[in-house]
Backbone:
């Protein structure tokens, strides 16, 4: 693993990855994804990050690929 590799993502970082959507839009999209049978990955229980809820980078990327936001060429 590269020492600069991203391991955890905050909710604001994920919103930026999705084109700068708002927190409210992110939560409504999460509800929609869950209703469609493709729930967003669960957050990581990390105490004391000071950055709010954190998500595993690999889980988020796999999720984006599963719903068609990433192509095979994006993950190489």
Residues:
């Amino acid at each position: 693993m590269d020492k600069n590799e991203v391991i955890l993502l905050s909710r604001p970082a994920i919103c930026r990855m999705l084109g700068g959507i708002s927190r409210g839009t992110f939560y409504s999209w999460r509800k929609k994804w869950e209703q469609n049978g493709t729930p967003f990955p669960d957050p990581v229980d990390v105490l004391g990050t000071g950055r709010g809820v954190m998500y595993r980078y690999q889980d988020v990327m796999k999720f984006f690929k599963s719903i068609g936001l990433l192509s095979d060429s994006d993950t190489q």
In short: The chain has a mean pLDDT of 88. The two ends are 15 Å apart (CA to CA). Residues 10 and 52 are 7 Å apart (CA to CA). The helical segments are 11-17, 23-35, 57-66.
